[in-house]
Structures are given as C-alpha cells and as structure tokens.
Amino acid sequence: MGINYCKYCGEQRVGKGNFCANCGASFTKATSQNSFLSMFQNKNRNIIIILVLVIGAYVIFDFNKEDREAEALAVAQEFFESECMERGCEFDSFYDIEMKLKQKEDQELEQPGEYRISGGVVLNDPEGDMQEYYWFGMNVEFYEGEYARAGWPSIESDDYYDER
C-alpha cells in the first residue's frame, strides 16, 4: 500500500481510521463534501455554458435579422425607383418607411416570419414644386432567402404628369 496524504494539510496520514493525525479532517465526510462541491461546480459550469450558447445564438440571429432587413429594404427601394422611372417621374425619397418582422397572430404560420415594407414615395413633378404626393406601398415577404412581392404599387393618378 502506498503512503496516503491528507488532502487539506498535505501531511502524511498517520491517524486511526478516517481522521488525519495532523489537522483532524474526516476523510469520509470530506470526501462526500468534496464530491458534492465538485458536482455543484459542474452544474454551475454547465449552466454557464448553456447560457453562453443561448446568448450566442440570439446574437447570431439578431445580426442575421439586420442583414435580411437591409436586403429587403434594398429590394423595395430598387422596385420603387423602377416604378417611378416607368411612370416618367423622378424618384425623390422614401416617406414613412416601415419594416417589421411580423408574425401573423390569428392565422397559422406558413413561414417563420414575414417582412412587411410599406411606405410612400414622393413623386416630383418636372417643375419641382412638390405640391402633390402620390402614395403607394408594397410588401416584401422573406421566405428561405427569396423575396415574393405582393400588393403591387398603384398610383392614384397616372396622368398627373401629362396634365402639367
């Protein structure tokens, strides 16, 4: 048999039974306390690891959401600009753009979420007096990296520029 050393004071165990002759520690009790404490520390370590993973997943999703929102906004802006150019007017600016990742509350979800982009475009007349605004909106739905356009824009008066 090898020489046993006390886990607490480091001295060689000379005492009778499960007690250290130097510091008097009970090895039966100390061993059970030690295993209990190590188990408690392992639980805390596991909880911390799980929390770090959950927070990391949230951060990654959040950054990914910002990228998708920026891409959806670029798609909408490109469409608005082309729609204005087809109608012979200048694209001036977005007005009151709203973009939200919404989930349908009362209906079953067909996809994890959808991007709603609704807004207005200020249509400048050639003289630039900007007295009349024509509003139109569109929806850009995000689904597996594809954008489906719904609610195509309509402008109330197509002959606005012809009359001036």
UniProtKB/TrEMBL annotation:
<keyword id="KW-0472">Membrane</keyword>
<protein>
    <submittedName>
        <fullName>Uncharacterized protein</fullName>
    </submittedName>
</protein>
<feature type="transmembrane region" description="Helical">
    <location>
        <begin position="44"/>
        <end position="61"/>
    </location>
</feature>
<keyword id="KW-0812">Transmembrane</keyword>
<keyword id="KW-1133">Transmembrane helix</keyword>
